[in-house]
Inverse folding.
């Protein structure tokens, strides 16, 4: 995983968790949904980078 993309994915995941928790705490469904969406975006970015790493590793063998 490239360092920059890995950090971006982690940041999106963490930020999403905070937004989701804040939304649940105040009963704001919109904020909760935005938080979940941001987490999913971070998860997708992380998965994409893992696939890229696996392809690079396979080429090296």
């Amino acid at each position: 995983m490239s360092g920059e993309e890995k950090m971006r994915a982690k940041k999106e995941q963490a930020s999403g968790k905070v937004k989701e928790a804040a939304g649940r705490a105040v009963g704001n469904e919109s904020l909760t949904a935005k938080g979940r969406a941001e987490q999913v975006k971070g998860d997708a970015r992380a998965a994409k980078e893992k696939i890229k790493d696996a392809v690079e590793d396979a080429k090296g063998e």
Summary: The radius of gyration is 15 Å. Helices lie at 3-26, 29-60. Residues 29-60 form the longest helix (32 residues).
